[in-house]
């Protein structure tokens, strides 16, 4: 069976959920081989084996450390040249996209970004993309070089294999070929963590927009998210007003989410916002304007004031749970 | 210090976009404009000139004849001149093909800094900045929210999910800027008038010494097999709050096993 190279991200022993999704997808296309940077612990190798990776390429970090996307692209391009895989799978998002773009150029290979579905076909993987703010579906294929595919988080449900595999671990030492000048990270200010689920991975997302009215109003969105065990999201209007951090922005220039439940409070539903959330399974909207476009895609809409409806809803949910 | 800014002519976001027979975006049937996300790139360049950090701005676009509208809009915001890569053989180019053309054009231009938008509003791939950087072997900072140049280096801030990073790259360098880098100005009347006199040079593929079969539909490394509209979402229930909305909403969530 042909190899499918999967760029895996992890934090020490835990493999990121989006990487497990890629491994699950890779099994449908061929024989998954994981490309891993940094410390490869036994626990990590086991987790990869449970998700079907038959090979783990453990890439030794370059010294001095290289700019991450450039270092990852170097490794993936090199391994792709060496193993002639049937496809390379990378998670969509700023970092993944940068790696994939560089690999495509270096291999002079076709790239398809932000896949919502990938299926095996005789002529190579057929990739479905959701384009034009989610209004069209496009099926395409790479016809020159190794298919480089970035996959949207949540496009696949991660599933372990019935019988775990013992992956072959192979160390990969790379040489940095007279590398082009790269940027240097001179300062890094970590952001505060919230303890809430990661936005793109959450099964419930509660998002607030300009209609929330103020930074204090945004607390209501957070409270509902906490009651539902979900992540907090926002429209660009709400992040621009600094009612919440920018990384919570959903939409064309923010994140793409597809949770089981999406609750939009005080969001009008502009096309750029819908682009990032209309793949959600169930959409609930609370907006005082009955003509707000968000109602066109909502499964359940409430025309009303969120400052009244949300506290009542939180109370009602708490009551039901006793 | 000289800046090159990459701009794209795209269909208006609010128009109903269609596919043409050949599965490419039908650009003739809808109004086009300078991509809103590239206006941020233009804005940053103009600000660098105003701050005295840069002296000249040249724009570069690849696109159909009408793309000159986008060029004029950018020139009305500021800047000195533009290059328009125009060739019928470019129709249907994929990302790798487009990157090779833009890189070839940049090789013929003078610059210390290249500024891109974060993504085109039609293709939305966000790949061209780094692809071009890789081809030209330039250091690249993708998705910057602030940038400044001093003498020989570019300093940019970018937001990742868990941190704000400050990144320094030696010039010449390439950067893409997000829609959070600072609101783009409206062209002034004076700017619009001045833009009409600024030179726009047209280059064909032969000027760039690129074989036509390397680009366009013929040279594309990807192919579209089928397109179809997304299935419309089924119309849901909309209720007007009469004091009972929270209860009915909770019932809906419970019935759908979402509580
Ligand atoms: C290139 C580009 C990229 C963009 N990218 C994004 C993106 O990634 N994400 C994004 O979200 N936007 C994006 N936008 C912006 C987008 O066009 C909209 O401006 C934005 O989504 C509007 O946010 P909003 O719905 O919160 O605000 P508004 O459109 O102002 O809507 C506020 C809503 O709140 C309702 N409301 C007010 N008070 C109450 C109340 N008390 N109770 C209930 N409802 C109330 C109002 O009826 C209204 O419908 C982008 C725009 C451009 C040009
Ligand atoms: N045809 C083009 N001509 C000039 N610049 C372009 C073109 N296509 C893309 N770009 C630039 O590359 C950026 C990212 O585009 P994309 O990778 O298509 O999302 C855009 O914001 C533009 O700055």
TrEMBL record, chain A:
Electron transfer flavoprotein alpha/beta-subunit N-terminal domain: residues covered: 4-185
Cofactor: FAD
Superkingdom of this protein's organism: Bacteria
Keyword line: Electron transport, FAD, Flavoprotein, Transport
InterPro entries: DHS-like_NAD/FAD-binding_dom, ETF_a/b_N, ETF_a/FixB, ETF_asu_C, ETF_asu_C_CS, Rossmann-like_a/b/a_fold
Family the entry assigns: Belongs to the ETF alpha-subunit/FixB family.
Function (record text): The electron transfer flavoprotein serves as a specific electron acceptor for other dehydrogenases. It transfers the electrons to the main respiratory chain via ETF-ubiquinone oxidoreductase (ETF dehydrogenase).
Record text on subunit structure and interactions: Heterodimer of an alpha and a beta subunit.
Protein name from the UniProt record: Electron transfer flavoprotein subunit alpha
Organism this protein belongs to: Paractinoplanes durhamensis
Lineage of the organism: Bacteria, Bacillati, Actinomycetota, Actinomycetes, Micromonosporales
UniProtKB/TrEMBL annotation, chain B:
Electron transfer flavoprotein alpha/beta-subunit N-terminal domain boundaries: 22-212
Keywords: Electron transport, Transport
Cofactor(s) required for function per UniProt: FAD
UniProt cross-references to Pfam families, sorted A to Z: ETF
Highest taxon, organism lineage: Bacteria
CDD domains: ETF_beta
Quaternary structure (record): Heterodimer of an alpha and a beta subunit.
Functional description taken from the UniProt entry: The electron transfer flavoprotein serves as a specific electron acceptor for other dehydrogenases. It transfers the electrons to the main respiratory chain via ETF-ubiquinone oxidoreductase (ETF dehydrogenase).
Family under the similarity heading: Belongs to the ETF beta-subunit/FixA family.
Protein name in UniProt: Electron transfer flavoprotein subunit beta
């Amino acid at each position: 069976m042909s190899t499918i190279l999967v760029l895996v991200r992890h934090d020490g022993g835990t493999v990121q959920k989006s990487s497990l999704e890629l491994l699950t997808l890779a099994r449908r296309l061929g024989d998954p081989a994981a490309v891993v940077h940094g410390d490869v612990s036994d626990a990590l190798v086991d987790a990869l084996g449970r998700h079907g990776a038959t090979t783990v390429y453990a890439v030794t970090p370059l010294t001095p450390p290289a700019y991450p996307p450039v270092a990852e692209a170097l490794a993936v391009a090199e391994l792709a040249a060496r193993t002639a895989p049937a496809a390379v799978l990378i998670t969509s998002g700023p970092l993944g996209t940068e790696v994939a773009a560089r690999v495509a150029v270096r291999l002079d290979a076709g790239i398809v970004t932000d896949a919502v579905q990938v299926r095996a076909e005789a002529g190579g993987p057929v990739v479905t993309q959701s384009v034009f703010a989610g209004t069209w579906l496009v099926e395409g294929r790479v016809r020159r070089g190794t298919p480089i595919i970035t996959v949207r988080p949540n496009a696949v449900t991660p599933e372990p294999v019935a019988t775990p595999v013992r992956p072959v671990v192979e160390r990969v030492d790379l040489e940095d070929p007279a590398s082009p000048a790269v940027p240097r990270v001179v300062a890094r200010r970590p952001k505060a963590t919230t303890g809430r689920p990661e936005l793109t991975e959450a099964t419930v997302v509660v998002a607030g927009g300009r209609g929330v009215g103020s930074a204090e109003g945004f607390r209501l969105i957070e409270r509902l998210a906490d009651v539902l065990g979900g992540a907090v999201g926002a429209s660009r209007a709400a992040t621009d007003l600094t009612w919440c951090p920018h990384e919570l922005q959903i939409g064309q220039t923010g994140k793409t989410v597809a949770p089981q439940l999406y609750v939009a409070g005080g969001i009008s539903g502009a096309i750029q916002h819908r682009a990032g959330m209309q793949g959600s399974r169930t959409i609930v909207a609370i907006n005082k304007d009955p003509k707000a476009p968000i109602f066109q895609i909502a499964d359940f809409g409430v025309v009303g004031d969120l400052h009244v409806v949300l506290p009542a809803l939180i109370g009602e949910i708490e009551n039901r749970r006793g | 210090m000289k800046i090159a800014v990459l701009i794209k002519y795209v269909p208006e976001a609010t128009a109903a976009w269609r596919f043409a027979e050949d599965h490419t975006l039908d650009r003739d049937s809808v109004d086009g404009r300078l991509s809103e996300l590239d206006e941020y790139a233009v804005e940053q360049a103009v600000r660098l000139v105003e701050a005295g950090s840069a002296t000249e701005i040249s724009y570069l676009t690849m696109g159909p004849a009408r793309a000159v509208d986008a060029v004029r809009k950018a020139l009305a915001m500021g800047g000195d001149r533009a290059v328009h890569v125009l060739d019928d053989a470019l129709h249907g180019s994929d990302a790798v093909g487009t990157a090779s053309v833009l890189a070839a054009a940049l090789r013929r231009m003078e610059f210390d800094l290249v500024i891109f938008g974060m993504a085109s509003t039609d293709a939305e791939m966000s790949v061209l900045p780094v692809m071009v950087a890789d081809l030209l072997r330039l250091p690249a900072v993708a998705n910057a929210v602030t940038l400044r140049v001093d003498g020989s280096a570019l300093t940019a801030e970018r937001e990742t999910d868990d941190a704000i990073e400050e990144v320094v790259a030696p010039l010449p360098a390439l950067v893409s800027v997000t829609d959070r880098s600072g609101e783009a100005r409206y062209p002034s009347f004076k700017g619009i008038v001045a833009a009409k006199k600024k030179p726009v040079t047209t280059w064909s593929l032969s000027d760039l010494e690129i074989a036509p079969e390397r680009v366009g539909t013929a040279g594309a490394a990807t192919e579209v097999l089928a397109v179809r509209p997304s299935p419309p979402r089924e119309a849901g229930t909309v209720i007007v709050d009469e004091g009972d909305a929270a209860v009915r909403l909770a019932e809906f969530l419970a019935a759908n096993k979402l509580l």
